[in-house]
Specification:
Layout: H1 15-19, E1 28-32, H2 37-48, E2 52-57, H3 60-74, E3 79-83, H4 89-98, E4 105-108, H5 126-130, H6 133-141, H7 143-149, E5 153-157, H8 181-203, E6 209-214, H9 247-250, H10 252-259, E7 270-272, E8 275-276
Parallel strand pairs: 1-2, 1-4, 2-3, 4-5, 5-6, 6-7
Antiparallel strand pairs: 7-8
Helix pairs in contact: 2-3, 4-6
Length: about 325
């Protein structure tokens, strides 16, 4: 694939600006966790360009409401809802079986963050069982549909939080290790990026592009529902030094990677603020790191630090929750 990744977009670009002038007529998309936040905004942008969009969500009643709102606002009636609980392998398998025909865009957006210690029905720690494992099962299950589309794109919504921890393969579910919600979140986001790197390499011959992204710190999403102090306002030069995006800005990079011709042929890369990072985070391109059994863990109270950078700590409110 030709690797082109220059775009005119930055941190303040919106999903509407990214999708302007793009025609997705005849193309089909699935967006997970599209019942609210940047998932719903991503689905809205793709539908506005003429795509047939399926909202894969846990709460189908809420999803139907969002689908009606998108259809009314965009004039595109081809907005559907599918049941998907990423923490339940049976639900993921049913969603895969439900899907008919080719799939041009899969946006792996849903996720949970910094939850109290909980486990899936299979015994996985909830964040690991949901964020990487649920999307791994979904994407691999839909591989045939993606390959059939010709030039399909998989967009993996990660977080800058992945730099704060590698995957602890000897104890991913914190069976023997004291549970830390931020350590669990970090390893789940590292696993998301590693999946994008591996899938990009393995699926290149099928014409499937797979990229990961950090959407930024997003205010007013349900992802931060377990936080004592979720991000609520912009602070471009204030006490934290970290600017907080609104939902329209937070969805921009997802829409770019799913639909923009500016990144056609780009695969196996990590984007943030509408651009490919010139220096990849340590998880990108480091598939060999998956053999490690130890990693640096957050210490202290377990809260996300207020000041974050690619070499520091996990950002708190990044993206939309599981639908």
């Amino acid at each position: 694939m030709t690797q082109r990744s220059t775009t005119p977009f930055g941190a303040t670009a919106t999903a509407a600006e990214v999708i302007a002038g793009v025609d997705l007529t005849g193309r089909r998309a699935i967006v997970t966790g599209a019942v609210s936040g940047i998932g719903a905004e991503t689905a809205r942008a793709l539908a506005s360009a003429g795509a047939e969009v399926t909202l894969a969500v846990r709460d189908t009643a809420a999803g139907e409401g969002v689908a009606r709102d998108i259809a009314t606002g965009t004039g595109n009636a081809a907005v559907h809802v599918a049941a998907l609980d990423l923490a339940d392998p049976d639900s993921v398998a049913a969603c895969v079986q439900y899907w008919p025909g080719p799939l041009h865009m899969l946006v792996a957006n849903a996720g949970v963050m910094a939850t109290p210690e909980r486990r899936t029905t299979q015994g996985w720690e909830l964040q690991f069982g949901t964020n990487p494992l649920g999307h791994f099962q979904l994407a691999t299950g839909l591989h045939g549909a993606l390959a059939a589309a010709g030039g399909a794109r998989v967009v993996v919504v990660s977080s800058v939080g992945h730099v704060n921890g590698e995957v602890l393969f000897d104890d991913v579910s914190f069976t023997h290790t004291p549970y830390d919600p931020w350590a669990a979140y970090s390893q789940s986001k590292t696993a998301n990026v590693l999946f994008a790197v591996a899938a990009a390499r393995r699926w290149a011959a099928d014409g499937i592009a797979v990229n990961a992204l950090n959407p930024g710190r997003i205010r007013s999403t349900n992802l931060g529902r377990h936080l004592a102090n979720p991000p609520t306002a912009f602070d471009p030069a204030g006490s934290t030094g970290v600017s907080v995006k609104d939902i329209q800005q937070g969805a921009a990079t997802s829409v770019l990677l799913a639909a923009s011709p500016l990144v056609a042929g780009v695969t196996g890369k990590y984007f943030e603020d509408g651009r490919k990072r010139s220096r990849s985070p340590r998880a990108c391109g480091a598939e060999s790191r998956t053999t490690r059994s130890t990693r640096r863990r957050p210490t202290g109270s377990g809260r996300c630090p207020s000041t974050c950078s690619p070499r520091q700590a996990t950002r708190s409110g990044d993206r939309a929750p599981v639908g």
